[in-house]
Amino acid sequence: MNEALVVVVRGVISYFSLLIFARILGKEQISQLTFFDYILGITIGSIASEVTVDLSSRAWPHWVGLATWAVLAYLMEMITLRWRYAAKFFEGEPTIVIMNGKIMEKVLKKMKFRITDILELLRNQGIFDVNEVDYAIIEPNGSLSVLKKPENLPLTPKDMNIKVTPTGISTELIYDGKLIEENLRQMNKDKKWLMDQLKKQGIKDISEVFLFTLNDAGSQYIDKYKDNMKKVKDIGDYKGPF
Amino acid sequence: MRKFIVAAIPIAALVLFIVIMISGSFLKKPFGTDDDVTKSIENVMKDVNEEAWDKAVVEVDELESAWRKVIKRIQFSEERDEINFLTSNIVRLRGAVTSKDKSDSLMELNDAYSHWKELGK
User: Fold this and answer.
1) Of A24, A42, A201, A225, which alpha carbon lies 20 to 30 A from A141's?
2) CB nearest B14 (choices: A6, A20, A58)
3) Which listed CATH number (3.30.240.20, 3.40.50.800, 3.90.190.20, 2.60.40.420) goes with A95-152?
4) Mean pLDDT value of segment A34-50
């Protein structure tokens, strides 16, 4: 029995099984995971590692365990998507911990949060004075959403009655010295226009450009391979191997 | 077509993985004349019962050779311990047959047969 070869084959099986299951389970980011989702991910990963290296038992029962957890996770996802009552039960719900500037002590106790945790989460959002907070809500994933009191909210163009045009999303037209023609067409531009823009920047060929983006408002960002920086700043605070 | 391929590739991959993982019961079956472990065990058992020790030694060689061929096929689906136990049984069987020990030979043969039956279950 060639153990290394068996581990390679079993590794390929568990890696791609995990990849397929993860793709089916959805696109939630780590930051959006609830505590249970986090444990679920660890458990599924742990079973996948057993499929790979636990040669003292067959791969099949471990794989069935992996598939069972993935199917249950998918079913729960479907149930919570379609049935709001179940979502409330399984995933929890947002809880107000500061209302009208007042801390809800009983709620904090129920949520097993200390006031120091709330203050830390507020500081993470750049709020160092609780007086600034109107509402604070603990989301099911444990993060804190904050609504500041109106007098502490940032000034917006709307407050000043200033008309602004939407900028839209920047689209890459050149990346890594290559033209992305599909995006150029999408932005209703042609190659001649692009070359004119490059010429204005003293660029003769597309291959000189690392990144060229354009947004709906017409704002361009052009980065050349040649940066012509005489002195590059080093932000390292101590000497390392590089 | 693209949507079909996107769905078909993961499904085909999962099916292939399942086939590899449960293929043991099929792959342990003989594909030729020199990889029939069941028949080899029965032959050695017959020789031991008749105390035909010279013939039994040759049959043990054949059993070992057949088993080595089967290991290569079933190693991806079966557990390592079960494979190692059967290998040890054959090694001990060789010793028992060489020393013409009937009871030890029958013990190892029966143990080997029970491990063989467990494979692919």
Assistant:
1) A24
2) A20
3) 3.30.240.20
4) 86
